[in-house]
Amino acid sequence: MSYKITDECIMCGSCESECPVNAISEGDDMYKIDPDTCTDCGSCADVCPVDACVPSE
Length: 57
Fold this sequence. Notes:
The protein has helices at residues 14-18, 43-47; strands at 3-5, 24-26, 31-33, 53-55. The protein has a two-stranded antiparallel ribbon. The radius of gyration is 10 Å and the shape is globular. The mean pLDDT is 97. It has two helices and four strands, in the order E-H-E-E-H-E. It has one domain (3-55): Alpha-Beta Plaits, CATH 3.30.70. The N and C termini lie close together (7 Å).
């Protein structure tokens, strides 16, 4: 399983710098997580101020 970023993303960039495997990149209107690279560590969710980083189902 990996994490994903929801529409709640405010483009603050906190998650991108916290990802230890560089799975997060800036999209047009929100950040995106590459599910093939994500290791499900949860670092992004720990720093997201709006709880936009959530486990994929």
